[in-house]
Design a protein that fits this description.
- The chain is elongated and about 100 Å long.
- It starts with 9 loop residues before the first helix and ends in a 7-residue tail after the last strand.
- By secondary structure, it is an alpha/beta fold.
- It is 26% helix and 22% strand.
- It folds into two domains: 8-38; 48-179, no CATH class.
- The protein has a five-stranded mixed β-sheet, covered by helices on one side. A three-stranded antiparallel β-sheet has the order 1-2-10, with no helix packed on it.
């Protein structure tokens, strides 16, 4: 049987405590230095988030489908909830849902128009194919929404999309497409 243990002398106890604290400090310094000097994570993998959509690069020959494109819809008619109803149809066809709301005061749209700063983009062509031709594309219109490069503006004569619900576009050139943030990378 062993006898009672003698308590450590105060000087020894202080030395052990100090030693443990120094080891913890060194571990913290090493971990902190490694974290500070580590490369930044590349979460975006070549994408840019603009708010309602994420810009992704696509290469010539890639095919884009509605799931790759975010669309915003605005109402230039006197009919209530027309933008929301149109967005619901486009979203049911797979498009990313951007913003909806009323078009700027004074906007005159008879049936439907696409407003974009990139009128020749594949995303615009895909939206036009889904809506049904002919759909005029207007440039130099007020910027609407929070980043969607394709804006659909509906007027009093608009009913609903009549185009090919399964339309896809094969890119002829490299293009950036603003699509849903949760869409898979190309």
């Amino acid at each position: 049987m062993t006898g009672p243990r003698e308590p450590l002398a105060p000087a020894v106890r202080s030395a052990v405590t100090l030693g443990v604290l120094v080891v913890l400090l060194l571990i913290g310094l090493v971990w902190g230095w490694r974290s500070l000097t580590a490369a930044l994570p590349a979460d975006d993998l070549g994408t840019t988030n603009t708010g309602i959509c994420t810009v992704r690069p696509f290469a010539a020959g890639d095919t884009i489908s509605p799931g790759d494109v975010t669309v915003s819809v605005y109402n230039a008619s006197g009919r209530s909830q027309l933008a929301r109803a149109t967005m619901n149809v486009l979203a049911s066809r797979g498009f990313g849902a951007g913003d909806t709301g009323n078009a700027p005061e004074g906007a005159v749209v008879d049936r439907v128009e696409v407003w974009s700063t990139e009128p020749d983009s594949a995303a615009v062509a895909l939206v036009r194919a889904q809506i049904g031709e002919p759909v005029p594309v207007k440039v130099n219109r007020p910027v609407l929404g929070d980043g969607s490069s394709v804006v659909v503006v509906v007027g009093d004569a608009w009913d609903e999309p009549t185009g090919d619900a399964g339309a896809q576009i094969t890119l002829e050139t490299d293009q950036d497409v603003c699509g849903p943030a949760e869409a898979p990378l190309p």
